[in-house]
Design goal:
By secondary structure, the protein is α/β, with parallel strands linked by helices. It has a domain at 2-26 and 79-112 and 172-208: Rossmann fold, CATH 3.40.50. The chain is 44% helix and 16% strand. A hairpin with a 5-residue loop joins strand 5 and strand 6 (132-134). Helix 1 (13-24) packs across helix 8 (197-208) and helix 4 packs across helix 5.
């Protein structure tokens, strides 16, 4: 199972991804983690990538594609993976195909930005262990208490609704071409992510069948 997971900020991509990885027994390949780790892992393009990352510059396609090619040829990727953050453009998507990698599906998590803005008001995190909850989509078993360690939950005030609305706009602009590319070749499936986490995962599993 080779998947790409798309979705706006705060849609719960990380949580959905973790559940799907378990379900399909595949691994997560995130472009951000790869960029940070490639140099230390001795990747051929690792040194080049590090130069751009250290300067805070965008990593050019040639380097990004090279890194991904190397990563996806490793043994642990052979059973399948969920890509996250790559490809970002139709050009990178084509490069991926040229590596001989054919995605089974592209899951596009869709939620109205207004719903996302409201949802973040329900975000809570554990004071002690940092576990994240959401009163709307991922509530703890006991109100106000962390399932993992029993500590009190606190409100996360780092995300305000206006910031989320703006980030959704930016996200939409940045991913429009890629979405259209995958839509045109029939790989993209929209999954309504306005539901509890387990339900969203069920919808994703249904979508890739
Ligand atoms: Zn905790």
């Amino acid at each position: 199972m080779k998947l790409l997971l798309l979705g706006p900020p705060c849609v719960g991509k990380g949580s959905v991804s973790r559940k799907l990885l378990k379900k399909f027994d595949i691994i997560h390949v995130g472009s951000g983690e790869l960029l940070r780790a490639a140099y230390h892992l001795g990747y051929e393009y690792g040194k080049k990538a590090k130069e751009y990352v250290d300067k805070g510059e965008l990593v050019p396609d040639e380097v990004m594609n090279g890194l991904m090619k190397e990563r996806l040829s490793k043994d642990d990727c052979q059973k399948g993976f969920i890509l996250d953050g790559y490809p970002r453009t139709p050009e990178q998507a084509k490069a991926l195909e040229e590596m001989g990698i054919k995605l089974d599906k592209v899951i596009n998590l869709v939620v109205d930005p207004e719903i996302l803005a409201n949802r973040i008001l329900g975000r809570r995190s554990c004071k002690n262990c940092g576990e994240i909850y959401n009163l709307v989509t991922m509530p703890p078993e006991k109100e106000g208490t962390c399932d993992k360690c029993g500590s009190a939950l606190m409100k996360r005030d780092d995300d305000v609704p206006d910031v989320i609305r703006h980030r959704c706009e930016v996200y939409k602009d940045k991913t429009a071409r890629l979405n259209q590319y995958y839509r045109d070749i029939g790989l993209l499936i929209d999954v309504d992510a306005d539901a509890m986490l387990d339900e969203v995962c069920e919808r994703c599993i249904e979508a890739v069948k």
